Automatic annotation (TrEMBL):
Subcellular location: Periplasm
Protein's name according to its UniProt entry: Polar amino acid transport system substrate-binding protein
Signal peptide: 1-32
Superkingdom assignment: Bacteria
Record keywords, A-Z: Signal
A Pfam family: SBP_bac_3
InterPro entries found in the cross-reference section: Solute-binding_3/MltF_N
Lineage: Bacteria, Pseudomonadati, Pseudomonadota, Alphaproteobacteria, Hyphomicrobiales
Major subcellular location class: periplasm
Length: 291
């Protein structure tokens, strides 16, 4: 996964196909009838990170892409939008350098080389952190984790509200994915049934060929709240986080020479986490919740 996102190509296709927008509209309706989903704090509330002096900074150029909704995409008016885009703007505001900030979208495949060539100062586009990239670049602290979740068919009778209730029930998972490996490691007693694709898995769940499925919470949260699910299913138990299987989470990538700027971004992320603005952005794009 050297140059992959924190989401699979199947997930990117699912979201880019338009299901994200339909799910988002449905999610707002569901959100209005329930308590606001919370965003787990990734920064200790007592932690105070130093704010470096950026007075000599000429400009801060964020690089992103437009093919990873709801994180970064072009909206119906052709405007660059998304969770990452709004977060970049909030970081600049927190650091009081909004007048020096720029956000540019380029093809995802070009992000690493563009940053290495100093065509930008920071990449905020869901690049997965890898040992190879760590040898070349610096990374901010994580600002969002993408967990795994179960989703259950509501017609399946379950005796309990935890994963233990899935014993003796067929649980679907996509073959050859990190979620298949994670399911086997975390829940070896469950009866896993592997499917070739995510579409096949979700179709089997909807038709109750399996009673539950285990997959990426981002995809599942939008699917259960979209017309595609026909209200058959709901998220169940979790969330489950694992750096071994799911990576370090969403981070910002910077050049090795920019340690001061990296520290400044960490300071801003900690402040946004404490003052609730990170939660506000999260609710804007994930009203149904991932956790």
């Amino acid at each position: 996964m050297i140059e992959s996102r924190q989401a699979s190509p199947t997930l990117r296709a699912f979201l880019a196909a338009g299901l994200f927008l339909a799910a988002l509209l449905s999610s707002f309706a569901a959100f209005a009838q329930q308590a606001a989903p919370s965003l787990p704090l990734l920064f200790d509330a007592r932690e105070r990170l130093a704010r470096p002096d950026l007075s000599s900074l000429v400009r801060l150029r964020f690089l992103t892409s437009v093919d990873f909704p709801p994180f970064n995409f072009t909206d119906q008016n052709g405007k660059l939008s998304g969770f990452n885009v709004d977060l970049a703007r909030e970081i600049c505001s927190e650091l009081e350098i909004s007048d020096k900030c720029q956000i540019q979208a380029i093809p995802f495949a070009d992000l690493k080389d563009a940053l290495a060539a100093s065509q930008g100062d920071a990449v905020i586009a869901g690049l997965a952190v890898t040992p190879e990239l760590r040898r070349q670049f610096l990374f901010s602290r994580p600002y969002l984790m993408l967990p795994a979740r179960f989703v259950r068919n509501l017609a399946a009778p379950l005796d309990g509200k935890t994963a233990a209730a899935l014993s003796n029930h067929p649980v679907g998972v996509v073959k050859g994915t990190v979620h298949e490996a994670m399911l086997a490691a975390f829940f070896p007693a469950l009866k896993a049934q592997a499917f070739d694709t995510k579409d096949a898995l979700l179709a089997a769940l909807k038709e109750r060929k399996v009673d539950a499925a285990f997959a990426d919470a981002l995809q599942l949260s939008f699917w259960v709240s979209s017309p595609a699910s026909d209200k058959c299913c709901a998220l169940f138990d979790g969330p489950y986080l694992s750096e071994q299987f799911l990576g370090e989470g969403m981070t910002i990538m910077l050049r090795q020479k920019d340690s001061v700027l990296t520290s400044a971004i960490d300071h801003a992320l900690a402040a946004l986490s404490r003052n609730g603005r990170l939660q506000e952005i999260y609710l804007r794009y994930f009203p149904y919740g991932l956790y």
